[in-house]
């Protein structure tokens, strides 16, 4: 009985020591949890501030880049439009010059034709006049041609009649030709008047085209375009694109770090361990209904968002001791 009492006392002492050790372990765990919480709060605050600054800088550079690109595109459109108008006006002037030259050539040809026709008409009138004179001389018995000397009067009259008939036929032909030429002259004069009107219209069209060219040149000179400014905008655009790329890399790195912090990996502390006892990090177990409250939750919860939820303290202790965290 004394032996049993001694064993009981010994076991009681061992139990008390185990309780004290358990209390000590719990105190150590609490201290470590507090330290982990403080460290998590510090890391979370620094990480959040850095991430916010990077995002703000990225947004600022993105807005500046959009402004620069928009300004560059607007100026480029204005220059292209002015160039197109200038080319169209030049084409119009060139076409007008060509049309005027063609009309001038046509007028020159028509004038030459009129001159030839008028000359032929004068020759025909002169020929008719000479024939009439010869006919009158023959009727009066006067020979006006060489080679008629020694001929009898009947022969001269016969020859005169023959010449008169020939002259009359030639006169009729000359009159017909004169009438035809007169009609041709009238037609040519009408065509010339039309061509003159057409030339006047072409001249007006040419003048308008020249005025349009001058107007476009004036507008083009007023366009606020500078090669130096354009190159400066190009360089600024390239710098902003590089800055955005660098900031994107920083964001990707920080996002990867954040994902790494949210990942909780452990080994089974004992064979056949029930992993359903480990619920996961608080950050993954919490669902925010309204996204605008996310920042407030991060500020209030702090590092506790990265603490792990388990079913009981024994599971947590087992993970700390043998979970290879």
Automatic annotation (TrEMBL):
Coiled-coil annotation reads 1-28, 107-134, 185-257
Say if the entry is tagged with keyword Coiled coil: yes
Per the database record, which ranges form the SMC hinge domain?
276-322
- Tell me one Pfam family matched here: SMC_hinge
- In Swiss-Prot or TrEMBL terms, this protein is called SMC hinge domain-containing protein
Kindly indicate where the leader peptide sits in this chain. none
MF terms from GO for this chain are: ATP binding
Matches recorded under InterPro entries: SMC_hinge, SMC_hinge_sf
Superkingdom classification of source? Eukaryota
Q: What Gene3D superfamilies has UniProt attached to this entry?
A: 1.10.287.1490, 1.20.1060.20
- What GO biological process, any one, is recorded here? chromosome organization
């Amino acid at each position: 009985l004394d032996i049993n009492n001694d064993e009981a006392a010994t076991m009681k002492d061992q139990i008390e020591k185990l309780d004290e050790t358990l209390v000590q372990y719990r105190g150590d765990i609490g201290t470590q949890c507090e330290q982990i919480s403080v460290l998590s709060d510090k890391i979370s605050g620094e990480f959040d501030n850095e991430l916010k600054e990077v995002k703000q800088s990225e947004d600022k550079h993105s807005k500046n880049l959009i402004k620069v690109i928009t300004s560059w595109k607007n100026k480029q459109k204005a220059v292209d439009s002015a160039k197109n108008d200038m080319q169209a006006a030049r084409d119009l002037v060139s076409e007008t010059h060509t049309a005027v030259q063609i009309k001038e050539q046509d007028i020159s040809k028509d004038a030459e034709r009129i001159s030839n026709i008028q000359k032929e008409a004068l020759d025909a009138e002169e020929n008719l006049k000479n024939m009439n004179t010869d006919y009158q001389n023959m009727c009066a018995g006067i020979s006006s041609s060489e080679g008629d000397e020694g001929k009898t009067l009947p022969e001269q009259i016969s020859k005169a009649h023959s010449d008169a008939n020939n002259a009359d036929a030639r006169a009729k032909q000359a009159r017909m030709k004169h009438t035809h030429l007169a009609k041709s002259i009238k037609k040519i004069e009408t065509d010339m008047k039309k061509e003159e009107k057409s030339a006047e219209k072409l001249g007006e069209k040419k003048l308008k085209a020249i005025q349009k060219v001058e107007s476009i040149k004036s507008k083009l000179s007023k366009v606020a375009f500078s090669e130096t400014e354009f190159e400066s905008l190009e360089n600024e655009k390239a710098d902003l694109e590089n800055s955005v790329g660098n900031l994107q890399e920083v964001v990707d790195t920080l996002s990867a770090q954040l994902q790494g912090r949210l990942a909780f990996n452990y080994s089974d502390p004992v064979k056949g361990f029930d992993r359903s006892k480990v619920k996961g990090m608080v950050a993954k177990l919490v669902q925010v209904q309204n996204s605008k409250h996310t920042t407030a939750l991060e500020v209030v919860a702090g590092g506790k968002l990265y603490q792990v939820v388990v079913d009981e303290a024994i599971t947590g202790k087992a993970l700390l001791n043998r979970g290879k965290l």
